Amino acid sequence: MFLYFINNLIKQFTIFNLSDILNFKSKYSILTYKKIKEYNGQKTYIFSIDEFIKYFDIKSKTPIKFFDMKMKPLILKEIKEIFPNFEIIKEKYKGKSIKEIIFKW
Question: pLDDT at residue 1 above 70?
Fold first, then answer.
């Protein structure tokens, strides 16, 4: 009965490798890792722009520029050490504005 309870409890949580997280220098890499582990079976996650800004707590008045210049290089460098196929795709509307940001791994 106890093992049944533990197995069911574990299914409700996302398991992280602590040694991976401790090696990250960026909070953005930690948040990205968390999202990857949460949706690992899907191998992709799509953020709307508003969700992306809220999830990563971006305070900049130009969040996409901040993402391109500050966040993206850090995330790619650290996450690719664990997930070599990781990529970030910016999906655009017909014009220049970004519709969503996609993580694939």
Answer: no
The helix (run of H) or strand (run of E) holding residue 77 is: helix 72-79
Query: Both ends of the chain: CA-CA distance in Å?
Result: 37
Cα 57 to Cα 86: distance, rounded to the nearest angstrom:
21
Is residue 88 within 8 Å of residue 100, measured between CB atoms?
Answer: no
Question: How far is residue 50 from each of residues 23, 66, 86, 104, 105, measured CA to CA in Å?
Answer: 29, 14, 22, 19, 22
Q: Quickly tell me which residue has 């995330």 as its tokens.
A: 75
Indicate the pTM of the whole model.
0.81
CA angle 80, 32, 88 (to 5 degrees): 60
